[in-house]
Amino acid sequence: MAETDSDASKSDILYEFIILSEWIEDYDSVVSKNTLNNVQETSLYFSPWKLLKKSTGNTLRFLETEYSWHLAVSKDGKVVAILKDVSLEIKTAKDGYSSAVGKASIPSDQNPKLRKLKWSADNSFLALARDNGTIHVFNLLGCNLATIKGPDDSNGIYQPVVGLDFLQPKFKSSQWSNELLVVYHKGDVKSILLSSLDGQESYENIEFSLKPYYPQGIFSVAYDSNYLLIVSGPPTKNESGITVWRILNDYPFLKCTVEMERFSASSRSFLKFFSFCSNYQNPKTVIKMSISPSNNFLACIHLCGEISLWRMPGILLQRKWSLHEQPQYNKSNIKSRENSNNEDLFYPFDIGWWSDNALVIVRRNGALSVCSITTLQNLLGDSPEFLAESPQISCIKGDRSGVMALECKTSFNCKRREDSYFDEVNKDTETSILQESIQAALYSITDIEKFEPKRKTPKVIQRIYRMIALKKTTPEELYARKIDNEEYEEALLLAQKYNLDCDLVYQKRWRNSNVSLESIHSFLEKINKIQWVVNECVERVPDALEDVKELLKFGLEKSNIKVSFESLDSEKRQIVLYRIKLLKFLDKLSIYEKIIGSPKKYDKNEYDNFRKQPAIAAIVNYARKGNWEAVSTMFTYEGNETLPHRLPILSNFPETLKPLQYRCLLPEIVEREVISWETKILRKLDWCEKNSYESLICEDNDVTVEEVLYKNQEHLKYFQGSTPSADVVEEWYKRRTYEIEKNTGLVENALNFVILARERGVKSMNKLYSDLLTLESLVYLVGDENTTLKKLEILNHFEQCKLLLAKTAASSFITDLKNLIVPLAKRCKTGNCHTPQALLKTILLYFSEESLEFSLKFLNHLKEGYMNPFDLTFNETALIVLDCIYSCPKSDQLENCFSILECLPQRSENKEESDLHDKIDDVEIYLEVCEILERYEISKSVKFIYENKNVEEIGKELLSSMADFTKRVSLDFTELLVDFQVIQSKIFPCISDDYCRELCTLTQMTCECEEIIMSAEDILECRKGEKNKIIPFEKSIQLVLEAAQKHFEKATSFDDHYIELAQTCLRLIVEPHFLISEELDLIEAVQLLGDFEVNMLPVQVRKNENRIKLIDACLKAKPNNYKSYQKLLQLAQALRIYGDNRVKREGEVLIMIAEFALKVSDYEFCSEICNHLVNRNYSSAWMVIRLLAQNEEFRNRSKKLHFLAFAILHCPPEKIEELIESRLEFQEKYFSNVIMDTLS
């Protein structure tokens, strides 16, 4: 049990010593003082810090040996602040002080050892005092809330802070949440109000000075919750130097309640001078003070090493112990590098309170003790806890009572003891520093080597800071901590002393050790809890196979309780369950041994997974890994669980695994019966596996087969069962074959699987076997990666052949036929799709669509005497090849066709071959025609000629193409006519001989040579009744017109050469004919249009349906074209405008000319044309005549009257009145002018 505060002073206390955090300073470089330059050395001596040190004497040597880092712990221990050289970290107890919740940057100080750090009572503020007296206030996150500058004297020397604490609130205020009390070394006292509100500045509430009472300065300050401020300084001869001050709300703010004897003014002045000059110091000076948690006692450390205890609030001395009276004061720190004979190391360095009855004392050598306030005996035991030298401590009050400390371990790069940095510091006395400074100044002035300071080597050190906690604990907590720290012997002693459970030690040692026969007997056997022991035998998996056996045997031995099922309680029931598991694990171990074969192959993790899994899960995993030996072993020894799912398990083998490896696992069918698997038994049943205990065994099986095997493979349920039928097995073989091929594309594996199935009595695999053989050739010989078994099986044999020969060439065709097609053709004998002969014919016909070279190769192969693998005679093969010629659509295969004919036999008297030779003769005829067409650059295949035989339309197209070629290259037209007649007689008898002659003559006349055209008169009947002419007169007219029109339509202008050729054709007909005349007139019209500069193609003139617009085009083509009205009338006649109606043609043309002349204001010419219209009495001209007559610019009065009379005569009735009025008006003007002219 933990000790209470009341008896803490009477007996030892239980505690824990914990390292909370650690920081390493790897690069800190320490430069010896003598390495400074002269100016620096001199200024260092006269620095404010040196002057302060000189004024206070040797009492500040404790600060000089403290760390530059500082630790501040809140009163409840919930937050901690660590002040580093230039940074601040804030940590909390929530995470064990492991991470910083707040950080801040701090300005560097000349002497960071004079800093102070303090938390407020509510942990909301953290106050930091720097060496110059400046105060910084931070919040919990490290934000700087306020900065208060410290006081300085008239010499500019800063005052360090000796007291820093937060006061208890005297009154509630919404503006000010905390009050900070600051006491400076020279005696100045400040009270600063702080606010937690954003933007609210601090406020100095109190200013007071203790200089009259402590002229030499203040060394230590303590504050209790009763608003009492306890101050210590240099004492008088018989006094302690301690005063007590009550803090007031109003002026003078501080009131002394316990006062030491005052000095006179003269004595104070003398002491000041004596202190400065001779380093005056009193050994009774109090340098550290601490108030107990209940505010009843004050503990002090004196400069001489004495510890005193005072009763509060009257400051009455209760006890005191000089250094040599203090128990265990001279215990040496084995971790320290300092000389243990140096008595200064045993001086108390800091003091605090563990409780109201126990003090915490820290000495310079790092010894930390918790001592009784009555005897000062160490309550931690025979020896104090040792930290690094001069650690900082902070005591925690309340439930978290204890001590937190900050220590620093220093290591140097030098090997010699005299190189220690601290030795150098100790040598730097004020006298030596003054001497060295004067010497350096002289050297800087004179530059004489005699005064040159000695140089010292820089020292590089490494500092390791640790934050450590020493806290109270209970025996149970300490016992658990000892076990966690593996301090087993101490833990056992503690367990024996406090009657604790020793099993915890052996349990920890068992779990931390490897399982072996030794560890079983040394640790596990000593544990009294049987259930725990058996559970460990179940849970632990040793690293060696023999250790597994020993552990299982030990567990079975411990669990062999042999009780009836009815007497089972919860503990025994659990032990029985463990025994069942151990037996199962022992069986699993036996099976695992058989699987691995050798103990060297034992794998701890593999075995652990194996034994935890149900048999069905393990065998499925082995199957998926392709371990067929393991599957076979489990079928044999775990048959009850695995064999009902034999086929689904086999379906989990990787499809990439060769079926030959697991052939022994495949089911076999004999006379439609499936052969069962032979199983074996590992051992006899144990007592816990019989009778009533069966219910416990069932409870242990918590994994279902459904989850393991069928969750994602529902289709495998069809094949489960202990004794599947032959039909089910055959169906499984088929599906498995498809799965292997589909999932891997390894046709070889699928084929081998089918072969094994056929060996094992599966009779329904022939079709699948044949398809796989084909697919094997397709994949491995052809290189087809896209065709699958599913795609292949829906194809007929010919479609399969197409795939097999997809990459064949003529050079490899015969080889591919032998290697790829012949095996398939042999398998076709058992099918119904194709016979081998039909298959060959289909293949040759298929390739003939692209080239006849394949058929030629095959025919040559047989002609050379090779055996026909398709059981065909040469004549039968020849017939097939002839069919191939008819099926080839390519026109570039004529050479191959002739080569094929050369391979075929000549006609003989054998009547059986007559059909063959008749077909050969037909092919020769088609080839002859193809050759004729080829001469005319007309490429046609035999297939085309054969399919279009006697098709008149196709025949005429071919003859026309021949005629065009002849005309283009100027060949002999007699030869053309002969070729026409050959093609017509042999292929197109539907075309007449006359058509051939007429086409030849037309071709002759459409040539671009006039001599050739004129030679056609020998064939044409140029006048009726002309004898010895081949083509009659009417047909001659038709051909001449057609030829002339073709020339005419080719012309691009009126003077084109084709116009002359057209006229040449028309002049072939000597006897007049109206059709010839019309064509000649059209040619004349084109030439007239050219004279009028109308740019039109002759073919456009022919196709113009409204030819009157051509007259309009002539009028617009040139400005003066309208004046050539006779030529325009000639053009109209040549164009046959309005046919044979000459009156209308001329009248309309003249009207157009008159309108155009009127439009261009040529009134005289318009009057001339209108006069022609009046003379011809062309009534439709009344409008243009009326417009001319009514035009004011037309001055011929007599013609105006004449034209108006004509307009009145021929206008519509509704216009008569208007025109008469116009004529009368004009007539009146006309006669008036005549009378006037006469009179004049």
Automatic annotation (TrEMBL):
Residues 618-828, 1029-1206 form the Sec39 domain. GO terms for molecular function: SNARE binding. Residues 69-332 form the Neuroblastoma-amplified sequence N-terminal domain. Pfam families: Nbas_N, Sec39. It is found in: Endoplasmic reticulum. It comes from the Eukaryota. GO terms for cellular component: Dsl1/NZR complex. GO terms for biological process: protein transport; retrograde vesicle-mediated transport, Golgi to endoplasmic reticulum. InterPro entries: NBAS_N, Sec39_domain, WD40/YVTN_repeat-like_dom_sf, WD40_repeat_dom_sf. Keywords: Endoplasmic reticulum, Protein transport, Transport. PANTHER family: NBAS SUBUNIT OF NRZ TETHERING COMPLEX (PTHR15922:SF2), NEUROBLASTOMA-AMPLIFIED SEQUENCE (PTHR15922). This is Neuroblastoma-amplified sequence.
